[in-house]
Amino acid sequence: MDGETGDGIGLGELDGLIGYHIRRASSVFGGTFVRAVTGTGLRQVPFGILSVVAANPGIKQGAAGRALGIQRANMVALINELVDAGLVDRRAADDDRRAFALSVTPRGAALLEDCTRRIKEQEAELLADFDETERILLIDLVRRIEAREAPTSAD
């Protein structure tokens, strides 16, 4: 491949590595996310948690963490942050008193809705030259990659 950076520097072998391009694209989307939610106090991971909890009222804290690939210790701190901010309610699960069931508060739902609108507007701008079929294909391709777990060094 013969890709170059914007200033004419050749990428060499990097240009043929999909992971390199996905990482760079992820960085672009990360910046888009930050610009979209500036002033709301919400970051990417808590936004993801709010989204999963809103889509699955009563989900157990551990299940939400597994769905998002968040380690248990980190999930506890993140949920504490969301509870303290009044965005998520946490209560003992009905079927397992040792587990916590989560639900989004009205304040959390309003913030999630506002941030989602902002993010979608930013993404629409970023992907303005993609038609609907290309957007659907892009999501499908990335989901197929996500569905594969990266092998660990112990594998």
From TrEMBL:
<dbReference type="InterPro" id="IPR036390">
    <property type="entry name" value="WH_DNA-bd_sf"/>
</dbReference>
<dbReference type="InterPro" id="IPR036388">
    <property type="entry name" value="WH-like_DNA-bd_sf"/>
</dbReference>
<dbReference type="Pfam" id="PF12802">
    <property type="entry name" value="MarR_2"/>
</dbReference>
<dbReference type="InterPro" id="IPR039422">
    <property type="entry name" value="MarR/SlyA-like"/>
</dbReference>
<feature type="domain" description="HTH marR-type">
    <location>
        <begin position="15"/>
        <end position="147"/>
    </location>
</feature>
<dbReference type="InterPro" id="IPR000835">
    <property type="entry name" value="HTH_MarR-typ"/>
</dbReference>
<protein>
    <submittedName>
        <fullName>MarR family transcriptional regulator</fullName>
    </submittedName>
</protein>
